[in-house]
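Entry:
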Amino acid sequence: MTNSVHWESANGLSKIWVQAVDDRDRPFEFEVAAHGSRGKLSALKIDGVSVDPQIDETLETLPPAVIAELADIGITEVTTGAIRYSER
C-alpha cells in the first residue's frame, strides 16, 4: 500500500513524499527530489527513524510499489544510495 504527496515549483523542481508499509507493517517514507522525469532519493524514514540514503548503502533500488507511484507522477528515473567514488 502506498500514498503520496507531490509539490512542484514554477521552475519544474519538485518533491514527492511516498509513504508505504512493508509486510511487517513498518511505515516507510521516501522523499524524492526531482526535475522533470529524473529524481534522487533525498531522505528516507523507516518506522519514524531517519536514514541518510547518501551514507547508507543498503538501499540499492526502490520497492516496486514506490517506483509505480513515482511513475504515475512522471518520475521514471530515480537515483538511490551513496555515491561511490573510484580510486585511480
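The first strand starts at residue 2 and ends at 8.
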